[in-house]
Amino acid sequence: MLGLMMAEPLRVATIIEHAAKWHGDTEVVSRLPEGGIHRYTYADANRRSKQLAQALLKLGIENGDRVGTLAWNTHRHFELYYGVAGIGAVCHTINPRLFPEQLVFIINHAEDRLLFFDLTFLPLVERLAPVCPTVEKWVLMAGPTHLPKDSALPGLCSYEDLLGAETSDYAWPTFDENTACSLCYTSGTTDQPKGVLYSHRSTVLHAFSISLPDALNCSAADVVMPVVPMFHVNAWGLPYAAPLNGAKLVLPGAGMDSASLFELFETEKVTFSAGVPTIWLALLQFMREGQRRFGTLRRTVVGGASCPPALMKAFEEELGVTIMHAWGMTETSPLGTAGHLKAHHAGLNPADSLAIRTKQGRVVFGVDMKIVGDDGQGLPHDGVAFGDLLVRGPWVVRDYFRSHTPGELTADGWFRTGDVATIDPDGYMHITDRSKDVIKSGGEWISSIDLENLAIAHPAVAEAAVIGVPSAKWSERPLLIVVRRPGMEVSGEELLAFFRGKVAKFCEPDAVAFVEKLPHTATGKLLKTQLRKEFAGYSVA
Questions:
Q1: 62 is annotated as an active-site residue
Q2: Closest alpha carbon to 262 in 296, 306, 313
Q3: Identified catalytic residue from 186, 203, 337, 523
Q4: Boundaries of each AMP-dependent synthetase/ligase domain copy (predicted)?
């Protein structure tokens, strides 16, 4: 027997339609790449998204066609999220921080027919255009006054001209909720980037789930500023969750420096934000230098890389801002876990509470996970046993877009994340390492992440990375690679002494190397493949 409920398909356009109808006067504020602050409402965003939809149809875009973006977090990029997906096409957000050859590969692999780009990326786009033959038209996301007088870009036009030729008299079409709506490629740190193709169903369900109190807890009482870029895993779902809940949305554009971010936090009265650890480390230094305090910011979510406990503690004790740890990946849309405490944790002392919250957290509804050993068998959730982390759920990838290699699914349908983790009796998952980064020393596994987090707690350390280097006796031993804080000195001997008594003796780094800066991926993660190349000849006694 089937239920007697309406069969309304889940579609991305229903989110912006809902926001326009029930939160129509709520603001969307963005800093423009060409300068200035832009303000309008969800009702305006819905109208302009419909104008964009009609413009795309006139350009011949059809169901399933890919429309690329090279853009910052702005109201125009927000409109593309809805205007493209709303007609059944695929919004392909491209990470401009990738290497040019990766960008060429991604655009050609996706076969983007149109490409929208911000003014700051004009020089980059002019280099890409000759080697991206599938792109029929390039659209500058600005007004006509910003169009270059001489450009070799085929069919170049301005975004505002495209929209200006259309009306908002348009009804969003209805189609199967499993229709593809957006496409995002992985960073490709060890291989060519791989495309993750999200559906309307997966995206709407993800937006619902991350809005729950034990996830991102997004509500109409919030002012949300996603610092994580919209070209990276849909800005962790916040451009969908904010309008779904009626929260004011603040988009920082290209101004990712601490001074620009702080200005928006204060002037727009932001209550909640999201970003990677490197953003918050820089912002903490900025706040300390000027003895600044936040007026309204009370919580932020950190993901993309492990958040150092020292960073969480400093934000709470010095700035009154709670950092919530979360975990996810491009293949999980991205949110998989969030680090909220349970009721029986209420009486914990601050140190024990922090120890729990520095884990990556508990699964949000819709995601299931387990850890397995080398034999593929499940391991206990005792907080001690660690193994390969597997996940599944309605917004977890089952295969890569146009993939010619086997996917990452197990025979029984679990996705192999590539992370090594523990899960404790309360369900808190803790990433101990990437499977390719764990250090195997004398039969023991050493977590590079735990050592990096401890190194960051030293007052003279700005950033740290740990890799395994050859050892004749132990096979591998940890090498600590450190960037000193400006104006501060610390020796290798002092840093090695800093670890004593804080970790097991066999986990202590054997040596320290100092560098001016560490290499990062396009999404802000430490690029350990590059570090291994740079220290390929290094060995410890």
A1: no
A2: 296
A3: 186
A4: 18-401
